[in-house]
Structure formats: structure tokens, C-alpha cells
Design goal:
The structure holds 2 protein chains of 2 kinds. By secondary structure, chain A is an alpha/beta fold. Chain A is 35% helix and 29% strand. Chain A has 2 domains: 141 residues, 3-Layer(aba) Sandwich (Rossmann fold), CATH 3.40.50.300; 70 residues, no CATH class. Chain A has 11 helices and 12 strands. In chain A, the strands form 3 sheets. Chain A has a 6-stranded mixed sheet, sandwiched between helices. A 4-stranded antiparallel sheet of chain A has the order 2-1-4-5. By secondary structure, chain B is an all-alpha fold. Chain B has one domain: ABC transporter involved in vitamin B12 uptake, BtuC, CATH 1.10.3470. Chain B is globular and about 60 Å long. The chains are: A alpha/beta, B mainly alpha. At the A-B interface, α3, β6 and α4 of A face α10 and α11 of B.
């Protein structure tokens, strides 16, 4: 049981984005996709979610191809949280989260009891039950991100693929969100999350996949992936390291090109 | 904007209410005319198969006018809601993809050729041919993986081409009278249409409506963006094809049979959106009924107004529609503050 992408190569508009990338998402695990801007993280996530067909290579979903599974079955298996977070402002939060149940409902059927329970759970998990009746357009950016995450959780899929779910969240909700993702992974969901914060990525992900210029540079335990050489080569930074209550962490401290400046 | 979203009215009662209002307006439309008509007698005679004068007036004049008003209004209202949902833009209207202009040009070409004088249905047939040709061009232009921007751009291109070709036909009109006839037709009217017109457009419209309504769940998902909608299991290329095809059938045949009736497809979805809880999928049928009610009301209005010859329907719907848009501008400005 896993989503396995092998030798993924993608060009968009003639520009190579991904080259020969392998990736695997396992149930019960949080995989962090990290890399500098333009490394190909979002493109890889879209390929994994079957939203983009790669030029070369293929993705296997628990032993079947996306085509063999069909759109509906795939939509029940994979929940996708897009980066920008588009939403129609006048829709109520509850109605928006309810859209996550569309893959489980027959066309034109009203939401059933199972759907309502899933929506209630998702609202509670993302701490947005309090504004279930509000119009999405009246929420702050961070609140809206949490509502959109609730929409993705409402699918109750085996895999959750989230593109920068922390963008715009305050520190409390960043930590809450990562703890939430960890929790659902412990309940069996395979989670992939695109992150920019290396401190949080190192602390909360079980495994990190580091991309640079469309290539897989490293894939493994956070402590192995985030070593000093890679931080210097890929991100051009130096990080401080410490530990707290037996848990080690790193803190991006300064860029290296400043040090080299005359 | 109030913080709480308007939950809307439950679909069944809302649609029931709108359907009832549409039926009532159709009945009123049949009761209104230039000559007094004993409606009860006309209906009894018609049902009994007696070709009395009241029965003939009802069947040949009043019934097709009322039915076409309802059908055309329903098509415009539903297609407007569909386009606003597809493009996720409240300013979209049925004409945005260029089908209406192409249908108008097809009809104008028939006018110009003189075919319309010899064959009563030549005009709507020309319009439908124009709409279908434009749809084929649109599909060729778009290919499979087209974006929303490409669709709007293709629509703008089709619109300007069909508009220019129509202007060219007017420019080259053999005499001022022919040009005037074309201009009046373009303004839209339900006068002097027959049951043959109804029979011609009804199957096309029904097919168009069915295609559009089939997209309702996908349109709801599309409000979250294209990637999210695709991740919820909807095929966006197939969604676009059904919507464009459906709108082309419904709007193309509407324009072909009545000329251009503006603003209905733009205004009606705006008015009804809060009542359906801002769900694009639920808006489709409601907006169809709303369009039918608005067109029937405008058509009743032109007959009751003491202006002869009667005003063109397209002029009246635009005159009613524009103030709604002014109000919308005000509301959007207040919300932006």
C-alpha cells in the first residue's frame, strides 16, 4: 500500500521542471516536500495527485494506475489542498467544507448523515466550527486556509496532499496544523506536505524529500536530509542546531553569500 | 456583507415557487394582446379542435409568443448562470463565448440573401447554423486542455468577428429599408412567431438545458478552483465541452428565433444567487425560471405600454436590466469598503 512515483519527468511550456524524480508516499507517514522556490515541489505534488500527466514516468496508486482506478475512485482516495486557496466568498464555511464530500455522493444526491458527520469532524479538527455559518469572504487569510484544509480533510481520503498548508497561519495554528497532520497520519493516512519552514519540517515530518532544480537531491529521515552541506548547497544557508527535551532542531541563521561577500 | 452567509432557500420549495411564477406569467402573457380575446372560450374551442376565431388567435398568435418567451428566457437565464459558474466571473453572460453574435450574424446573412422572404423558418435556421458553426470553431480553437483565459479570448475573437461581419452586411445592405429591417430584428422580439418556431427550437433547447444541468455538481466543485475540482473527481475538459455545447444549443436557438435579448443572462443569476446559498450548481435551474419570468414580464410590458409600434423586447430587457447593474455596482462598492 503506497503511492509510488517513478522516474517522473515534466516540462511545462518547454521548460524542464522535474527530471527523473522518484517518490513514495506510505500510509501512516508524514512526508515533507522541501526545496527552494522553483524546485518543482508543487509540480511533483500535482503529478502525485494525478492532476498533471508526466512526460515520462508513471505513478502507481496502491498497485493500480490512475486510469485503471478511474476519477471517482481516485478522488475518494486522494485529497488535495491547492496552494492559493481559491474560494467563492459568499459561500458559507459549512457549505464549502461540504464540497469535500462530493466524491462520496451520487450526482444530485443531497448530503447524507455520513457526509454531515464527516463535515462536523473536519470543522472541529481545523478549529473552525465556530464560524461554520460565516461567509468565507469575511474570514481572514489564515482562517480561510484552515477552512480549506477542513475541506480537504472532509474527503476522509487515504492520502492527503497539501501544498503549503501553513502559508498565512499564525504560529499557534502552524503548530496545530502540523500536529493535526501527524495525528491523522498516525490513524493511517498518508500525508504529503509542501513546507518552507525547515525548522517545522525537521520536527514534524517522518521523512523529507529534498528537491533542487527539478531533481531529487535527498530522501530520508530529517536529520539525514538536513545536513550542513545540503543546507549550504541547496538553500545557500547556514543553520544553528540545538535540542530541547531530547528533541533536536535546527534554526536557519544566515545566508552564506553574505559571508562570502567582500 | 453580513458575516453570516445566506443559507438560501431549500431547493424544492424555491424551484416550485419559481415554476409556479413562470406558469402564471405564461398564462398572463396569453391573456394580454391587442384585440380582446375570450380566453376561456378560446381554450375550450382549441381543446375541442374547433377552428373558431378565438381558438386561432390563441394557437397562432398568443400561445407561440408566450411559449417562446418562456423558452428563450429560460435558455438565457440558465446559460448566463452556467457561464458565470464556468468562468467564475459574475460579469460573464451567455454571449461571452461569441455564440449569440454568431447566431445573429447567421440570421442577418439569411436576411441579406433574401431567403427569409421565401421561407418562414429560413431566419431561425440561419441563426442556428451560425451558432453551430461558431461552436465548432470554438472547439477547434480551444483543443482539449484549454484554460479559462483561452476560452474568454476565443469568445472575444468570435464576438468581434461576428460583430464585424454583421456590420459589414449592414454596410453593404442593398437599400436603407433592408438595413433597417436587420437592425430591428437584431433588437429582439417575439412578435409574429408561430408554433413552427417553437417546434424548431424546443428539442435543441431541451438538449442544451440537459447538458448544462448535468454539470451542476462539477460547477459547485469548480468554485474551489480548477485543480481542486479535478481532485474531487471532475473531468474539466468534459465539463467545459458540455457547458459550451449546452449554452450554444440553448442560446444559439434562442437568438435565432428572437434576435438578441440582452441582460437577462447577466442580471437574473445575480438576483437569484443569494436564494440558492451561492451554489453555482443550484443556480442553474432557478436562473432558468428567473429568465423566463423576466422575458415574459418584459414582453407583457411592451404590449401594455401605450407606445406603438411596440418597443423591441431586447430594448426593454436592457432598460430593465441596466438599473440592476447600477445597483450591483453600488453593492460591490459598499462591500469593498
Amino acid at each position: 500500500m503506497a503511492i509510488t512515483a517513478s522516474r517522473i519527468t515534466v516540462s511545462l511550456g518547454g521548460k524542464p521542471i522535474l527530471h527523473d524524480v522518484d517518490a513514495q508516499i506510505r500510509p501512516g507517514e508524514v512526508l515533507g516536500l522541501i526545496g527552494p522556490n522553483g524546485a518543482g515541489k508543487t509540480t511533483l505534488l500535482r503529478v502525485l495527485a494525478a492532476l498533471l500527466t508526466p512526460d515520462c514516468g508513471g505513478v502507481d496508486y496502491d498497485g493500480a494506475s490512475a486510469r485503471a482506478l478511474g476519477r471517482a475512485a481516485l478522488a475518494r482516495r486522494i485529497a488535495f489542498l491547492a496552494q492559493g486557496g481559491e474560494a467563492q466568498g459568499a459561500l458559507s464555511v459549512e457549505a464549502l467544507v461540504g464540497l469535500g464530500r462530493l466524491p462520496h455522493r451520487r450526482p444530485f444526491a443531497e448530503a447524507g448523515e455520513v457526509d454531515r458527520q464527516a463535515v462536523t469532524r473536519a470543522l472541529a479538527l481545523c478549529d473552525v466550527t465556530g464560524f461554520a455559518a460565516r461567509a468565507v469572504g469575511t474570514l481572514s487569510g489564515g482562517e480561510r486556509r484552515r477552512v480549506l484544509l477542513a475541506r480537504a480533510l472532509a474527503v476522509e481520503a487515504s492520502y492527503l496532499l497539501a501544498d503549503e498548508p501553513l502559508a498565512g497561519l499564525d504560529p499557534q495554528h502552524q503548530l496545530d496544523t502540523l500536529q493535526l497532520l501527524r495525528r491523522i497520519s498516525r490513524e493511517g493516512t498518508g500525508v504529503v506536505v509542501v513546507l518552507h519552514d525547515l525548522t517545522l519540517a525537521g520536527r514534524f515530518c517522518d521523512r523529507l524529500l529534498l528537491l533542487d532544480h527539478g531533481r531529487r537531491v535527498a530522501d530520508g529521515a530529517p536529520a539525514d536530509v538536513l545536513d550542513d552541506d545540503r543546507l549550504a548547497q541547496v538553500f545557500g544557508i547556514h543553520a544553528l542546531r540545538s535540542s530541547q527535551a531530547g528533541e533536536s532542531f535546527l534554526l536557519p541563521w544566515r545566508t552564506l553569500n553574505n559571508e562570502n561577500a567582500p | 456583507m453580513t458575516p453570516d452567509a445566506s443559507p438560501g432557500i431549500r431547493p424544492a420549495p424555491l424551484l416550485g415557487l419559481l415554476a409556479f411564477a413562470t406558469l402564471a406569467m405564461t398564462a398572463i402573457s396569453m391573456a394580454v394582446g391587442y384585440a380582446p380575446l375570450a380566453l376561456g372560450l378560446a381554450v375550450t374551442d382549441l381543446l375541442a379542435g374547433q377552428k373558431s376565431l378565438p381558438a386561432l388567435v390563441l394557437y397562432e398568435l398568443r400561445l407561440p409568443r408566450a411559449l417562446l418567451g418562456a423558452l428563450v428566457g429560460f435558455s438565457l437565464g440558465m446559460a448566463g448562470a452556467a457561464m458565470q459558474g464556468l468562468l467564475r466571473n459574475p460579469l460573464a453572460e451567455p454571449g461571452v463565448i461569441g455564440i449569440s453574435s454568431a447566431a445573429a450574424f447567421g440570421a442577418v446573412l439569411v436576411f441579406y440573401s433574401g431567403l427569409s422572404a421565401s421561407l418562414a423558418l429560413a431566419l431561425p435556421l440561419g441563426g442556428i447554423a451560425g451558432a453551430l458553426l461558431a461552436t465548432v470553431i470554438l472547439f477547434i480553437l480551444l483543443g482539449r486542455g484549454a484554460s479559462t483565459t483561452t476560452l474568454i479570448l476565443a469568445g472575444v475573437a468570435l464576438n468581434s468577428f461576428a460583430g464585424a461581419a454583421t456590420a459589414l452586411a449592414l454596410n453593404l445592405a442593398p437599400n436603407p429599408y433592408a438595413a433597417l429591417e436587420i437592425v430591428f430584428w437584431l433588437m429582439g422580439s417575439l412578435v409574429d412567431r408561430s408554433m413552427n418556431h417553437v417546434a424548431l427550437v424546443l428539442p435543441l433547447m431541451l438538449l442544451g438545458w440537459a447538458l448544462i444541468v448535468s454539470t451542476a455538481p462539477a460547477l459547485d466543485a469548480l468554485s474551489l478552483g480548477e485543480d481542486t475540482a479535478a481532485s474531487l473527481g471532475f473531468d474539466l475538459a468534459w465539463l467545459r465541452a458540455r457547458l459550451i455545447g449546452g449554452a450554444a444549443l440553448a442560446v444559439g436557438s434562442a437568438v435565432a428565433v428572437t434576435g438578441a435579448i440582452g441582460f437577462v443572462g447577466l442580471v437574473v443569476p445575480h438576483l437569484l444567487r443569494p436564494l440558492v446559498g451561492h451554489r453555482p450548481g443550484r443556480l442553474l435551474i432557478a436562473s432558468g425560471f428567473g429568465g423566463a419570468i423576466l422575458v415574459l414580464a418584459a414582453d407583457i410590458g411592451v404590449r401594455l405600454m401605450p407606445v406603438r409600434p411596440e418597443l423591441k423586447l431586447g430594448v426593454v430587457t436592457a432598460l430593465i436590466g441596466a438599473p440592476f447593474l447600477f445597483a450591483l455596482v453600488q453593492r460591490l462598492r459598499r462591500e469593498a469598503l
